[in-house]
Structure formats: C-alpha cells, structure tokens
C-alpha cells in the first residue's frame, strides 16, 4: 500500500491510476489544471485528463510492458494529491458578501 | 448545413457536437486549452474536454429537451474552429536550428 492507494483507483488492462476531483467553481478547476500542467512539464509525466466546469478526471497510464505503477507515476499522483489537498479540497466558494463589499 | 458541420461530429443520444484536435507539442495544447477556457468564461458555454500531451477532444452537450444544436453552442463551436485555424492548425513545430542558434 502507498499513499495513492486511498485516493486513486488502481485499474488493470491497461494498467493505470485514475482519480476524479470536484471543484467549487470553474475558476478553481482552471487553476488546478494550470498547476497540473506545470507538474507535467516539470516531471515529464503527461496524464490523460478530462474535465468539465467543476470536475477533473485524471488517468495516469503506464508504459507497457509495466506490471506495476512505477515510482515516477506514483510520485506524480502524490503530487496531484498534495496540490488538491492544499488548495482545493476544503475551502468552499467564498460566501457572497452578507454586507456590501 | 452550417460551418460546424464539416469540422464537428454531430452525435445523438445525447445530442452533442464533438471534435478532436491535434497539436504539434504540449505547449500548444496548453495554449489552446487556455484560450478555450477564456471563451467558456466569455460565453458561459462549458464543454466537456479531454486532453493528453498533444490532443484535445471537445464535446459540447445540449440541454435536454433540445432537439437541435442551439445558436449559442454553434457559435462556440465556430469560435473554437476559428481559434484552432488561426493559431494551431498549420504551423508545424519550429524546425530545429540547422545552424547553431
């Protein structure tokens, strides 16, 4: 077991990691995608990503004939987890101003 | 027939427009995604998008019980076409310097 086993789905045929992430609004979705893009350029790991207004699905494929998720991809998944947990996971959208802003 | 009928796939159940776009490199993929995000915020049309290092799939869903693609979504598709044609469709990656840069 490693840190990603509680946050990512380990799938077979083809071997991959999958995770869905939900966001309070489109601005946060965009922010997060920007940060993941920077992580891809920094690590050379380019997951397949699908997203809509307030969700992101990330799929990290392995290179055949891999029989396990390699450390590089596990590290990328952990980096995504840390990014999401630190910035997007808890804070709801800012409440509308109850007093005139 | 309208401008999108040659570039987008018109799909049924659910009614939607789909297009796949390929890019020379990740920098261009990212650039394009950024421009589409701005178009979404400007128009309020938020397609489902999936992408990898050098491809983007865009799906523009309609709101049931729509029986045709509405003008707003057709306009968004045309905007994506214009964006792609103007910036990304022709220029291959910069050729490596044949003489020392």
From TrEMBL, chains A, B:
Coiled coil: none annotated. The lineage of its organism: Bacteria, Pseudomonadati, Pseudomonadota, Gammaproteobacteria, Chromatiales. It comes from Allochromatium vinosum (strain ATCC 17899 / DSM 180 / NBRC 103801 / NCIMB 10441 / D) (Chromatium vinosum). SUPFAM superfamilies: PCD-like. Gene3D superfamilies: Transcriptional coactivator/pterin dehydratase. Belongs to the pterin-4-alpha-carbinolamine dehydratase family. The keyword ATP-binding does not apply. This is 4a-hydroxytetrahydrobiopterin dehydratase. GO terms for biological process: tetrahydrobiopterin biosynthetic process. It holds the Pfam family Pterin_4a. Keywords: Lyase. InterPro entries: PCD_sf (IPR036428), Pterin_deHydtase (IPR001533). It catalyses: (4aS,6R)-4a-hydroxy-L-erythro-5,6,7,8-tetrahydrobiopterin = (6R)-L-erythro-6,7-dihydrobiopterin + H2O. Its EC number is 4.2.1.96.
């Amino acid at each position: 077991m490693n840190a990603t086993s509680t946050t990512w789905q380990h799938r077979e045929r083809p071997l991959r990691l999958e995770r869905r992430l939900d966001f309070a609004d489109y601005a946060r979705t965009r922010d997060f995608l920007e940060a993941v893009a920077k992580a891809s350029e920094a690590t050379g790991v380019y997951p397949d990503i699908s997203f809509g207004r307030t969700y992101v699905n990330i799929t990290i494929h392995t290179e055949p004939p891999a029989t396990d998720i390699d450390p590089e991809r596990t590290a990328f998944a952990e980096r995504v987890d840390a990014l999401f947990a630190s910035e997007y996971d808890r804070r709801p959208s800012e409440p509308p101003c109850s007093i005139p802003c």
